[in-house]
Amino acid sequence: MTPWSxxxxxxxxxxxxxxxxxxxxxxxxxxxxPQNRYALPAKPAKPAAALAATAxxxxxxxxxxxxxxxxxxxxxxxxxREVLAAYPHCDLRLGARNLVFCDxxxxxxxxxVGEAPGREEDLQGKPFVGEAGQLLDRMFAAIAxxxxxxxxxxxxxITNILPWRPPQNRDPSADERAMMRPFVLRHIELAxxxxxxxxxxxxxxxxxxxxxxxxxxxxxxxxxxxxPALPMLHPAYLLRTPAAxxxxxxxxxxxxxxxxxxx
Length: 263
Description:
It contains twelve helices and six strands. By secondary structure, the protein is of the alpha/beta class. The protein has one domain: Uracil-DNA glycosylase-like domain (Uracil-DNA Glycosylase, subunit E), CATH 3.40.470.
């Protein structure tokens, strides 16, 4: 048996050696014999299936599919406004002051679908209240119609393709128009007008899904949601191109005549 003094001496020697190694920066224990790490077999790669099983699942939703489901679930105009306000996929809502949903009289025979709100529309939360909106009011007043008219036969109901103002009044992108289209179509169904007026290039191309220019298709009757639809030049275009007011007047007279033929 090793005398106690020898054991104590060996322990102190070992502890001193350990303290010296720590002081020199040794922080990992090694084997008694050296190993050639280059000769060791490579660590097998984790199977792809195992990686897929451990990876977090990220659910990707289609904004257009969501828009269709939400719009279809709305049973009234008030419900449609609520689901549109809560729709999370359109970032335009983050920079807008107000949601611009509608103006005019519910139950009107004529529904106007414009393009997107401008500065004044964004401030007031109503469509067509700027300079172009004032011209719109004068245009329809010429055929004895208006958004404030108490008679549904002569009243107007107005909305836009987009309920939020794009930055610097830029044109809505293709993605923005696609995700808003189901809401507008449902808006038309719930408002249930006799005639839809597609006011401007963005409105006509989005709802008719056509690449034809508005100057080519204006005045040509089409169909939206089972009812007549009339593409017209936007009042903002008429302000820039006064000579085109002649075509707009012809379209207004055609609209007036169409209303007389419908029950």
